[in-house]
């Protein structure tokens, strides 16, 4: 056993851990970063980045197929052998040499292995013990969940870690889970000729989003030939000679491959959180608004339950770094305006509360919806222009003038919905009064102009 004293140990170099380690080293601290797999975490190798390379490819196909209604026939031949190398390149060929070197250049000592807390300020990695003078930051992230569906494990289902390495699009695919990842991948493969069935146990696709958003995606999927079923009851799964069968309460579905795109399991086993007195409830680590889980221990990312997104993880890294460097002087984490995008086509961008969440908080809620195809830009766009803008407004506590209401949530489904979201994120984040939003200029004819019509609806009530 060797024992080394440093300022900070960061365990788990996902997006937040990587950022925190680099920032602290640049601030002059002696930092060790511990990673048991790939520096960068899930996002660059198996998550956001490679899947969005796939989405880009499938959107290109969809646009080419729409050309017939707009510009003249195009001969489209989908070919996954064009996609696979681009996905590999996006995922850095699953090689973390570059981000590791970048961390080392910033002054971080990168240590390979599984880190375990062993009491305050003490991290064990194999035969090495690191003693952290200033603190420990944990960004352990999640792994694909092992769902307890009878027979599923034995079929060796694909997960997000396999799907990004496929060299061919399968002939047919069952996707378990109709959340953001399931919907994105279902649409990608359907556009490459795969017969896709989505099985969602919840009441609808994208069940955390507004029902109006789910309805648009369900309609688009039906048009694209995706067999998307919600509120299913899965009885068991079997591997058969030519693929996999899923037995439902009301029938059997068969496909060549099965993908599990539901649920993530937090990497907390053996992390030693109990040794510092941190609280873990149902796989979520309790932290305060400076990301502190215990004295001298900061925890970031998916495992703290404020949104499993890369941008949340790096945001939290900045909060933790500020707190570690200047105790009690840094900003508090805020989550009232977390933006999120499901990269289906049309994209689903949303921020803040849904209507139901706002009502559950007891807010006096007003909502407005605008159909994207009915707007000028939506009509001009034509095929592929499905969508809806939904705004959720409420009065600020103590406000008496309804015109001074602010947006507490917003959803944009449509082409570039994730980009239109930016102005709504600003509005929710900074609590811009509706009257200010109504008095702005909105360029014509744009998709974001639909926001103006929705704001006017809110003020007309
Ligand atoms: C298919 C898919 C698509 C996604 N798309 C998006 C998207 O478009 N946009 C978005 O914002 N988010 C997306 N996400 C979510 C995003 O990937 C995560 O929110 C993001 O990676 C942040 O995770 P994290 O910081 O919690 O850590 P992770 O990225 O999970 O990384 C944690 C790291 O810690 C390491 N580790 C764990 N325990 C230990 C230990 N004891 N010792 C040493 N190392 C350890 C792991 O090996 C891993 O490298 C997607 C996720 C998936 C699966």
Can you put this structure into words, describing what you see?
This protein has 461 residues and is α/β, with parallel strands linked by helices. The chain has three domains: 2-40 and 96-144 and 265-325, FAD/NAD(P)-binding domain; 153-263, FAD/NAD(P)-binding domain (3-Layer(bba) Sandwich); 339-459, Enolase-like, domain 1 (2-Layer Sandwich), CATH 3.30.390. It is 32% helix and 26% strand. It has 14 helices and 24 strands. Strands 1, 2, 3, 4, 5, 6, 18 and 19 form an eight-stranded mixed β-sheet that branches. Strand 8 (172-176), helix 7 (180-191) and strand 9 form a beta-alpha-beta unit. Helix 3 crosses helix 7. The N and C termini lie far apart (70 Å). The model has no long low-confidence stretch (mean pLDDT 97). Flavin-adenine dinucleotide (FAD) binds at residues 11-16, 34-38, 41-43, 47-48, 51, 114-115, 139-142, 160, 181, 267, 271, 301-302, 308-311, 313.
Ligands and ions found: flavin-adenine dinucleotide
> CATH class of the largest domain, please?
Alpha Beta
Helix content: 25-40%
By CATH, the superfamily of the largest domain comes out as FAD/NAD(P)-binding domain
Q: How many strand elements?
A: 24
Number of discrete domains: 3
End-to-end separation in angstroms reads 70 Å
What share of the residues does DSSP label as strand, in percent? 25-35%
- Rounded to an integer in angstroms, the radius of gyration calculated over CA atoms is 24 Å
Write the CATH fold name of the largest domain.
FAD/NAD(P)-binding domain
**Biggest beta sheet attributes:** 8 strands, mixed
**Uncertain ranges:** none
